[in-house]
Amino acid sequence: MTEKDYEKLANLLYPNALDTSFYINKYKPRKVAGEVTRIAPSPTGYLHIGQLYQAVIHRMLANKTGGIFYCRLEDTDSKREVENAGEIAYDMLVRFGLKPDEGYCGEHAEIGNYGPYVQSQRTEIYNSFAKELVKRGRAFPCFCAVSEGKEEILQKREEELEESGDLEVKDPCRNLTLAEIEVNLKAGKKFALRLRSMGDPNKTHEFTDAIKGKKDLRENAKDDVLIKSNGIPVYAFAHIVDDTLMGTTTVVRGQEWFQSLPVHIELSKAFGFKPFKYAHTPSICVIDETTGNKRKISKRKDPFADVRYFLKQGYPTTAVVEYILNLLNSDFEIWRKNNPTLPYTDFPFELKKIGVTNPMFDFLKLNDISKTIISKYTAEEVYNCALSWAKEWNEKDYEIISKNKAVLTQVFAIDRGGDRPRKDITKFDEITSLYDYVLPNFKPKFNFELGNVNKQNLAEFLIDYSAQYTLQADNSAWFENLKQIALAHNFADNKTYKQNPVAYAGNVSDASKFIRLAITGKENSPELYSIMKILGEAECKKRINHLIKNLKN
After folding, report:
1. pLDDT band at 160 (very low <50, low <70, confident <90, very high)
2. 427, 512 contact by CB (below 8 A)
3. What is the pLDDT of residues 65-83, one digit of tens each?
4. How confident is the model at residue 101 (pLDDT cuts 50, 70, 90)?
5. Least confident of 41-45, 476-480, 483-487, 517-521
């Protein structure tokens, strides 16, 4: 075809589309020195932990460089769209402290001058740029029955290797004459728009990924679908158009998109655009409990794939974000140790420090970070966070926590503050079980092993202690009193005592342990004297006597 033929074809396919110059002039280049990054959730389900992982990168990159982080909703897959999923995804970003600076804002009006930020509202823009590609002879209508969408492309990409033998795919419709195309259009046939690929699959060029480093890429030689027959653009086309007009500087996305990079680069050049900087992130993995093999986090198998899981469990959102930063930059842990009071946003985050291997999700590490963060809260902050969590997620716990503020705040205050604060709270769904012993109507259950301890000897010690102890003294005097009573008793069974009488006579550690069990029903708790002060002498003696009765039965 000649240039005039291409122009005529463009007008046939998109007669009402504006010239691309209208949009290029409308969306002026951003006057910002830093990086412009974006997250583009699809409303086909919940916000995945992998998307939160990438959102942390976007937010930190924009913060570090004085740039902008925006949100674009990719809602072109109407068949799989879940009601309110877009709003939920945006809400999750906000609640995890990763609120975008502009763009799609869920149920609120969008912010910014580069919208619409919802792809389904950008059809006219896509038509204009589709028309431009046809004019340039770089796109053609395909009247074949099947065209690929985002999900099909993703599935196919997962199955293909970069060195696949299927390196060159030319669509039969690329050779249709203008007259043949006109006949199909007059017959009312629907068409998909395909890229007229110009690459040589035997040629490679060097490409530098911000995470993967230098890589050799083959040129694209596939006539990929750009716009489906229903007029909806596929990811590749919408990505190039939207990120160009919205001023994105660095595209951060999952490594599954790396295989499609050649077509994205060719498409950018076909428009005459400068290709973006790309950063393809590794995928967070777990060990499969069935096979024992490493695998990606699964929506079907792993409940924490949905980031709402962490809210429901009562993790502080900051703990989840700081854990993700640990996965992204290995020196974050050292930085946090050296800067315990600074916000994580002060961390000197770098793309180049992200590893190329897939990190493993480790709940033990997340729990450790969460404990440390909660240990720095004041008692009032712990109470308010627990109450807020319960109000949203657990009606029963909310009733308990809301009615027992005074006593819970007192126990939260024990050993709080200082250089070595107590770290017994991992998440807020533990509160009512962790501190049930200060709540009304508590009845301890004694399911512990006595080991070498003689039941009769232990009962005699508890009887003696219950009769003598007082909480009027301070902690030191109270402990000295406990020690003196313990020294007068032997807890071990007779056989063990005869073998080593020194080791088992007057064991203060055992004495403390069994009083703690009598008072709290647990082997571990905050400082015992303070708990007993909160409960009062009468309640403490009542509980000690309850254990004595259990030992005698």
Report:
1. very low
2. no
3. 999 999 999 998 878 888 8
4. very high
5. 483-487
Co-location of 46 and 105 in the same domain: yes
Q: Which residues of 348-371 are buried (b: 16+ CB within 10 A; e: fewer)?
A: ebebeebeeeebebeeeebbebbb
Q: Which two tokens mark 359? A: 């990190």
* pTM passes above 0.85: yes
Using the Cα atoms of residue 517, residue 520, residue 522 and residue 524 in order, give the sign of their dihedral. negative
d(CA 521, CA 516): 7
d(CA 196, CA 2): 15
Half-sphere exposure of 31 (CA within 13 A, CB side): 2
Report how many domains make up the chain. Answer: 4
- Alpha-carbon span 76 to 74, nearest angstrom: 6
Mean pLDDT of the chain, nearest integer: 90
Sign of CA dihedral 344, 348, 351, 357: negative
Q: Over the stretch 230-279, which tens digit does the pLDDT of each residue have?
A: 999 999 999 999 999 999 999 999 999 999 999 999 999 999 998 899 99
Q: State how far the Cα of 87 lies from the Cα of 106, in Å rounded to an integer.
A: 4
CB 351 within 8 A of CB 282: no
| CA-closest candidate to residue 64, choices 347, 341, 337 | 347
Q: Mark whether 410 and 484 lie in a shared domain.
A: no
d(CA 434, CA 78): 46
Q: What span, in angstroms and rounded, lies between the C-alpha atoms of 36 and 67?
A: 5
Give the residue among 92, 62, 60 at the shortest CA–CA distance from 326: 60
Sequence-distant (6+) residues with CB within 8 A of 282 are 211, 255, 354, 355, 356, 357, 358, 359
Instruction: Tell whether 126 and 197 lie within a shared domain.
Output: yes
251 and 303, same structural domain? Answer: no
Whether 303 shows a pLDDT value over 80: the answer reads: yes
CATH of the domain at 204: 3.90.800.10
Residues 147, 11, single domain; the answer is yes
Structure confidence at residue 32 (pLDDT): 92
Residues 12 and 133 in one domain: yes
Q: Return the closest-CA partner of residue 240 out of 71, 119, 75, 86.
A: 119
- The whole-number average pLDDT for the span 415-437 is 93
